[in-house]
From TrEMBL:
Pfam families named in the record: ABC_tran (PF00005), Wzt_C (PF14524)
Record-linked PANTHER family: TEICHOIC ACIDS EXPORT ATP-BINDING PROTEIN TAGH
Phylogenetic lineage: Bacteria, Bacillati, Bacillota, Bacilli, Bacillales
All residue ranges annotated as the ABC transporter domain in the record: 25-246
Highest taxon of the lineage: Bacteria
GO-annotated molecular function: ATP binding
Matches recorded under InterPro entries: AAA+_ATPase (IPR003593), ABC_transporter-like_ATP-bd (IPR003439), ABC_transporter-like_CS (IPR017871), ABC_transpr_TagH-like (IPR015860), Bact_Polysacc_Export_ATP-bd (IPR050683), P-loop_NTPase (IPR027417), Wzt_C (IPR029439)
Family listed: Belongs to the ABC transporter superfamily.
The name this protein goes by in its record: ABC transporter ATP-binding protein
Keywords: ATP-binding, Nucleotide-binding, Translocase, Transport
Keyword ATP-binding among UniProt keywords: yes
Amino acid sequence: MKNSIVVQELSKVYKLYNNPQDRLKESLSISRKLYHSEFFALKNISFEVKKGETLGIVGKNGSGKSTLLKILTGVLSASSGNVQVAGKVAALLELGAGFNMEYTGIENIYLQGTIMGYSKSQMDERIQGILDFADIGEYVYQPVKTYSSGMFARLAFAVAINVDPEILIIDEALAVGDMKFQAKCFNRMNELKESGATILFVGHDVSSIRTFCDKALWIHQGEMRMFGETLEVTAEYMKYMNDDEVNEREIINHRSEDFNTEFEAINRWGSQQGIIKYVEIFNSKKEKTSLIKFGEKVCIKVISEIPKNIDMKYCSVAFSIKNKVGTDLIVSTTYDHNHNLSKVKSNVIEVNFEFENYLKDDEYILVVAIENRSNMQPEYYDYIEGAKYFRIISDKKIFGYFHPPVSQSISFLKE
């Protein structure tokens, strides 16, 4: 299959000077003394995109994604390496790129057409489709400097996808649109994909990249960390991102030899704070994890040291999984499962909660508590909101927060 884009050993280097005078000193230096340091926005990037493929590009902010797209579209020149782009390119980079802010929406539509090599008559044939897709009404006759970011995105996207591009490049432009418009955009991009167009899509929404893209490229600090099948690349990227966030926050400092755990919790309270000694999440491979796959078997391990003055008959160990706004999504307790902890001979108790995860891909908070269930309303000896923080990933689009297996039957009835 023919390649639409070939990138070989691509690098982009910027010279950084401490002050403007250093640039002049360097240019006039007879001894060729250097007054600058080098910053590699991109370093030795190589990959190929076949005609008709869709490539998702991921990476932290500042990793070089936008720089790469600007080189591919000719906005920037490379410092070294080779770039081959075969086909007519339509690109949505940062909002406003290529638009004249003093022109009206209509005038900018024709301006974009001219930039792409279309005549006025050719744009006349496309103008109605562009207006219908943008759906910004009479604002199209107003200067674009008066537009909101959402209106700007609508118009820019409508132009880009209605000029029959052979290569479409999108740099997170959909993030400013509402959900209905984003769905509309993805439907149109699917149509372009089916027609054989090549698409490069930069985004932070991993679930959209997994749904839409054939391959993925992960760029980190200007270097290519991974390139290949979308699921494999995004899984490694999400694992890195989640582990990186955990390391930055230093959520838990665990010493396994004595179960002495310090929790950086959102909230911790109770009449016997400190009796929860250890909390960990394990995946189906029995590995500690902060990244859980949809449908994977999960184990939450809780170790606590119960003081002798607590009546074990009514003592219960509980966990809850909350979303980022604090809603309880899964709750389980030893009390509700009729486990009588008074039968346990040791006051150091290990409880393992095992379940198959059917929560959608998102970020979650783990709450762990030791309860007093002697009354209808539980009281808490130790309650930790934020014992762990974790993310769930899925290789398909999940609608709704909880998606358990559902049996289905289909019958064909006679008319």
